[in-house]
Specification:
Elements: E1 2-4, E2 18-21, E3 37-40, E4 43-45, E5 52-55, E6 58-63, E7 66-68, E8 73-78, E9 81-86, E10 89-91, E11 96-101, E12 104-109, E13 112-115, E14 120-125, E15 128-133, E16 136-141, E17 147-153, E18 169-174, E19 177-183, E20 186-192, E21 202-207, E22 210-212, E23 218-222, E24 225-230, E25 233-235, E26 237-240, E27 243-244, H1 248-261
Parallel strand pairs: 1-4, 2-5, 3-6, 4-7, 5-8, 6-9, 7-10, 8-11, 9-12, 10-13, 11-14, 12-15, 13-16, 14-17, 15-18, 16-19, 17-20, 18-21, 19-22, 20-23, 21-24, 22-25, 23-26
Antiparallel strand pairs: 26-27
Length: 262
Amino acid sequence: MRCNNAYSGILPTEGGGISLESSDKSLRYDTMYDQKIEVYNCICNDNGGWGIGTNWSSGISIHDNVTERNATMGITAWNSMNVYIKKNISNDNHDYDINLESSDYITVDSNTVKSTADGGGIRNHNTRKTLIANNTVSFNNEWYLCSGISVTSGIGYGDSGMFKRRPSSDVMITNNKVTCAGGKGNGIRVYKYTEAVYAEISNVTIQNNTVQNTISNKCMETFGNNIVIRNNTTTGKMYLNGKKYIDKGKIINKLLDLFNNN
């Protein structure tokens, strides 16, 4: 299927290419049934809202699609659970290329993202129990909050969802390649929008990633509780809870290499 130039005429964000919705916002997660819906080999571009989106859905597989130049997100999962987003190409969408919001149990695997979005490539927002793995992300935007991959909490599109005030938690970011191709921003960033309303982001593991950001000031910046950073290959400055982060393992490996060479 090819979906392009969808626009409702009501609001700019009301023209999604493909939309999957199961019920209204009163539906609780523990009563949500498994829909077993698969979206694949579709092209969704230049729509007035998102390319492919879910809302109040469960059991969705979105794979091998192309979403480009959409007015909000390329692929987005709102108030959903058990969603697999795999092997898609998502480029040059306006807000985010892949957006996860107020959801649970989301897997984002082996996607290719070329982002010029204001927000960045892949965002995990108010979402728990997420795996973000094996993706290739390049980003280029002058907005300083732009990130290749971000984990955030705060106000967002899913404000009417029942879990809108839950901070992101239990997120694994592994084996991704993130490259800053120009502009400002962070390779990987973990932060919350508002101090007074939302609890701290917690239990985020960032490991075995390659993050290259020599153009911007920061390769990686994280805030939260139990943020684990290990075995990453990085170029650029790294900060943990506002303090410059020194990867002791990386220094030890360099010293061992130097010792062995001599």
